[in-house]
Amino acid sequence: MITSETALSGRLCDDGHALDVRVYYEDTDFTGIVYHASYVRFMERGRSDYLRLLGIHHHKLASGVFGESLAFAVRALSIEYIKPARVDDILQVKTRFSELAGARIELCQEIWRAEEKLASGQVTVIVINEKGRPRRIPADMAQVLIPSP
Fold first, then answer.
1. 5-44 burial, b if ≥16 CB within 10 A, otherwise e?
2. Is 29 one of the annotated active-site residues of the chain?
3. Which of 123, 73, 71, 134 is nearest to 99 (CA)?
């Protein structure tokens, strides 16, 4: 059943997740094109909603559902800007997992406008405890992120 929450969270696809985002005036700079930091926010929404649809909610992580209070922290982020987006564009943020190891999760993300790729990025997030120390990805979480064939 589609609820307003799941509709806002995008959709799971064969190769990951897709989230539609409208560009608002607040996302642009003085030239009228999307400000570089806005792409980071769009990608963050894509990652968060991907996890949400997989059943990994930030508040569940913090509550200790996986054994102790956990959170995700971005360790590294690399973005290539290919073409500009402008106010009122409808963009699609595509997210897919590429690797899980220890406390680290690697993701590939792309931002598209129709058939045009506008940006691509690689992000590394780590699982940390409430003291900020890295923690191995819990087995049941890893199973949800990358199910066995």
1. eeeebbeeeeebbbbebebeeebbeeeebbeeebbbebbe
2. yes
3. 123
Tens-digit pLDDT profile for the chain (149 aa)?
455 566 789 999 988 999 999 999 999 999 999 999 999 999 999 999 999 999 998 898 899 888 899 999 999 999 999 999 999 999 999 999 999 999 999 999 999 999 999 999 999 999 999 999 999 999 988 988 876 55
Alpha helices in the chain (DSSP H): 4-8, 36-53, 58-63, 139-145
pTM over 0.85: yes
- Which residue carries 């590394």 as its tokens? 124
80, 86, 89, 92 alpha-carbon torsion, rounded to 10°: 10
Strand 70-81 versus strand 116-129 pairing type: antiparallel
Of the candidates 29, 49, 89, 140, the residue annotated as catalytic is 29
Start-to-end C-alpha separation, the chain:
26
